[in-house]
Design a protein that fits this description.
Elements lengths: L1 H23 L3 H4 L1 H23 L2 H21 L3 H29 L2 H32 L4 H4 L1 H15 L7 H8 L4 H22 L5 H24 L7 H4 L2 H31 L4 H26 L4 H20 L7 H28 L6 H29 L13 H42 L1
Helix pairs in contact: 1-5, 1-6, 1-13, 3-4, 3-5, 3-10, 3-17, 4-5, 4-8, 5-6, 5-17, 6-14, 10-11, 10-17, 13-14, 13-15, 13-16, 13-17, 13-18, 14-16, 15-16, 15-18, 17-18
Length: about 450
């Protein structure tokens, strides 16, 4: 149930961005930070909270995350200004990270192996339902009432879920001295380096959005932040008690799958952040109808995923990821040709293809990813997989919004009056997303060809 709420929050927030920008009298580019700051916070803390759950108590971290998520939702919903909204989103994201990092682990801990897959499937189903219904429910709420209700609705539902959680999940009574003792040896230096690096890296987006006058500053922040974040992984690999097991980091096949996943989530997130501006801000469509159209992508994914999973068990999984990425790349080309008017014959096919490509890629890639590590490392591998998804989404939203508004200097808010410059900037973002899709395609194509060579060598030796 908490997985449903956290999954629902993201798409609803994306859809609310144009309305919040108007209500708070801020620029469209500034409003995207409401989404970005939540994802950045989650990306920074996801692996850390998974590790703390392992060494302390998954139940404690999970339930504390539920409390944080509700407090953050309340702060955001009642926020009188933009700064308080950002603060509330940070608190909400901290809670979401604690929930996401430990929900799978709790299932693994309490369910026997013969029933574990079924229980994990239920969590995945609720995440999917939350993601799919987010645009529809969010659009309905925003059209019928204030955007604040997309956060307020979490409070009564969350209180009921927390009551159930404290009733059924045993919570050990730990003293602060014990907490400090078990977490003292953790690699806090690596975590702090990663936090600093990620913050500097994503702050570059605010400079890019300011236009060419801040381009050099943006590049400096981008490079320095990226170097520090990457070095944090190097430092962690050499630490006495690393957050990520060295066997996982040095597993080339696993890291290839993780890199491909991050790139795919990056590409997919570009449309998530830009389509509300295209439909609502530029073309004047209501949030409700905009949400229904955007929801087509998730509905298509839901319908296609069972078939993709079925085929992935019977056809070469590496080949499936290649096919999925080809379809995803075609969908990005389709977005680049979006018309200035609402011609649905040109608008709907790319959205549907996007969903098909994602479904065909994700199922086999997830199976490949988790099959490449030892079972005893499945927890940290799962956390790293979630981290790659979240980081990809975060970079995609930051990249998409930064590149769009970099091309529209002086535009405070996207409206129909911006005219063709918006359509040209919109298209350029998706041509760049097409190029990133091609990079991911090369990665999985090399993996597929390598798999074919290994199979041929095995047959020859036999």
């Amino acid at each position: 149930m908490f997985s449903f709420l956290t999954a629902l929050s993201g798409p609803s927030t994306n859809l609310a961005i144009p309305k919040i920008a108007i209500d708070m009298d801020i620029s469209s580019s500034m409003a995207t930070w409401i989404v970005q700051i939540g994802l950045i916070t989650t990306a920074i803390l996801l692996v850390m909270f998974g590790h703390i759950g392992d060494i302390l108590s998954k139940n404690v971290v999970f339930l504390a995350g539920g409390i944080g998520f509700l407090i953050g939702s309340a702060i955001t919903g009642f926020a009188p200004n933009f700064s308080i909204i950002l603060f509330g989103r940070v608190i909400q994201a901290i809670g979401a990270a604690m929930i996401m990092a430990n929900s799978m682990g709790i299932v693994t801990q309490y369910f026997p192996d013969k029933r574990r897959a079924e229980a994990l499937a239920v969590i995945s189903m609720f995440i999917s339902v939350g993601s799919i219904s987010g645009p529809g429910i969010g659009g309905l709420i925003i059209s019928a009432s204030s955007w604040r209700w997309i956060y307020w609705i979490n409070i009564p539902l969350g209180i009921v879920i927390l009551w159930l959680g404290f009733k059924f999940l045993p919570v050990p009574k730990e003293s602060w001295s014990h907490v400090r003792q078990v977490t003292r040896g953790a690699n806090w230096t690596g975590q702090n380096l990663f936090t600093i690096g990620i913050i500097i890296f994503f702050l570059s987006g605010s400079f890019f959005q300011a236009g060419r006058s801040k381009l050099l500053t943006g590049v400096i922040f981008f490079v320095i932040g990226g170097i520090i974040a990457i070095y944090a992984f190097v430092q962690d690999d050499k630490a006495n008690l690393p957050w990520i097991a060295p066997e996982v980091i040095h597993n080339r096949g696993f890291m290839t799958s993780i890199a491909a996943l991050a790139l795919v989530m990056l590409v997919n997130s570009v449309s998530n952040i830009l389509l509300p501006f295209y439909f609502q801000s530029y073309n004047g469509m209501s949030a409700f109808y905009s949400g229904l159209i955007i929801m087509l992508q998730s509905v298509t994914m839901l319908c296609t995923t069972p078939f993709a999973g079925y085929l992935a068990d019977r056809i070469n999984r590496e080949l499936m990821t290649v096919v999925g990425l080809v379809i995803l790349m075609v969908s990005q080309v389709g977005y680049a040709f979006f018309p200035s008017n609402l011609d649905m014959w040109k608008i709907i096919p790319p959205i549907v293809l996007n969903g098909i490509g994602m479904a065909i890629f994700l199922s086999p890639n997830n199976a490949l990813t988790m099959g490449l590590v030892d079972k005893r490392l499945s927890e940290i591998a799962g956390s790293l997989n979630s981290f790659a998804r979240t980081l990809g989404m975060t970079i995609g939203i930051s990249f998409g919004s930064s590149l769009l508004f970099f091309q529209l200097p002086g535009v405070k808010r996207v409206t129909a009056s911006v005219g063709l410059p918006f359509i040209h900037a919109f298209a350029n973002v998706f041509w760049t997303a097409t190029a990133i899709s091609a990079v991911a395609l090369v990665l999985v194509l090399v993996r597929y060809l390598g798999s074919r060579r290994k199979l041929a060598a095995t047959k020859e030796s036999a």
